[in-house]
Automatic annotation (TrEMBL):
It comes from Methanimicrococcus hongohii. InterPro entries: ArsR-like_HTH (IPR011991), WH-like_DNA-bd_sf (IPR036388), WH_DNA-bd_sf (IPR036390). This is Uncharacterized protein. CDD domains: HTH_ARSR.
């Protein structure tokens, strides 16, 4: 008895396979050959073949002269995938931290941009040790940074009038 074909939605295609998601995100930057995929994803061509076939069958990618590229619909999808998956990546990194905090005090426009935090390191210190000083690890890393965004809550006795 033949099984009916499985119908995948676009969200199934993107969310149910990390391999497909990685392929799409890589193609969002530039076209790739199968060798480039295997190198960047540390996988065999054999393990990638079913995912590439699914993406081709769903017309999200095309193969032109040995190079996989996004279709117009693929470009639209990937462009909108970046914000979602960057946000997920940011929140997953220290999920216990994020989910244990009251984030309602952060303005909505900043919360919508949480993905822009990108690669970060969570530094937590005992306030009794650093009541009036900035921890050296923070200062040292800040000096080395080429670009930094931060939101700090600092109390210092000389700023009592603020």
């Amino acid at each position: 008895m033949n099984k009916p074909p499985v119908t995948l939605t676009l969200s199934d295609i993107v969310c149910l396979s990390e391999k497909r998601r990685m392929i799409l995100l890589l193609l969002g930057k530039k076209g790739h050959t199968i060798d480039e995929f295997t190198q960047k994803m540390n996988m065999t061509a054999h393990s990638l073949a079913p995912q590439l076939k699914t993406l081709r069958d769903e017309e999200l990618i095309v193969l032109k002269d040995g190079v996989y590229e996004l279709t117009n619909i693929g470009h639209i999808l990937v462009k909108n995938m970046y914000p979602l998956f960057e946000t997920i990546e940011t929140l997953e990194k220290d999920h216990r931290y994020w989910f244990s905090r009251n984030l309602s005090v952060i303005p909505g426009d900043l919360m919508e941009r949480v993905r822009e935090i990108g690669n970060y390191k969570l530094l937590e210190y005992d306030i009794s040790e650093y009541m009036f000083d900035v921890p050296a690890e923070f200062s040292d890393n800040f000096k080395k940074s080429k670009y930094a965004m931060c939101l700090l809550s600092v109390y210092h006795p000389i700023y009592t009038e603020m």
